[in-house]
Amino acid sequence: MNLRRTSRLRACAPHSAFTLIEVLIAVAIVSMVIVASTTLIFSMGELWGRNSDVRLFDLHSRNVTRFLESELASAALPPTGGTAGAQANASNTAAAPVTIQEVRDQTGNSDLYLTYELPNGSRLCVWPDRALPSVVCSLACREGEGLILLWHSRLETNFDIDAPRETVITPLVTGMTYDYYDIDLKTWKNETVLRKDNSNQGVLPQRIRLTFTYSGRTLETVIDIPGAPPQGLPML
User: Which of 22, 85, 87, 190 could be bridged to 134 by S-S, CB 3.0 to 4.6 A?
Assistant: First the structure.
């Protein structure tokens, strides 16, 4: 009797399996979700990659600017202990951290350059042998080459004879100009070359402006010069 009742209950119980229509609907929904997700991923990738050159150019310009700001700030730090600090202290006790000096390049030509000294050198300096401290660096902008770092150490035997080594910081810099502030007139003036005073010595600007150019796009950044003469309001 119990067996018959159990058989009847099993026969009357609803089936728990999906029907064919339900399975087809589920497959269709999953397919649409996958297609939509794939389309979204590819469209986002296309949008992100469309302006990748512009973003990389902007990032490169900012990184170069921050690098130079860090280099100039390091040059303005007071000398520390150790060999590098002692050499820097001995050679530049009363000197400004950034100066204008006449430098002879590897072609034999001499010109005025923005010059600073790094007691511990720069990470861009690739030495043929052991790295030396007290590295004197100068910045040059050359057409077709970009922004150039001229560098050599005061500890080198032929420091006063040999031309400094040269390293390309970036080929994307097409211009370097100089901002001077006139305290009396309270005005800014941008110069394409470094000024000279009555004694024909270079005059240190308050700021330098770098012009980056890539694929028709131009971007300008401004770098303050540590130890420069007092300035007024920023020039936009």
Answer: 87
Q: What is the dihedral of CA 146, 206, 137, 150, to 10 degrees?
A: 30
Instruction: Say what the pLDDT of residue 110 is.
Output: 93
Q: Kindly report the pTM of this predicted structure.
A: 0.72
C-beta separation of 149 from 163 below 8 A: no
Q: How confident is the model at residue 224 (pLDDT cuts 50, 70, 90)?
A: very high
Contacts of 83 (CB under 8 A, 6+ apart): 133
pLDDT value at position 152?
Answer: 96
Residue 93 identity: T
Strands (E), 119-231: 135-142, 146-153, 165-170, 173-182, 187-191, 207-214, 217-224
Residue 72 in contact with residue 149, Cβ under 8 Å?
Answer: no
pLDDT of residue 89: 47
Residue 234, pLDDT > 80, answer no
CB atoms within 10 A of CB 87: 19
* Tens digits of residue pLDDT in 106-124: 999 999 999 999 999 999 9
Are the beta carbons of 143 and 108 closer than 8 angstroms? no
Strands of 110-118's sheet in order across: 98-104, 110-118, 135-142, 146-153, 165-170
3-state secondary structure of 211: strand
* Domain spans, the chain: 52-224
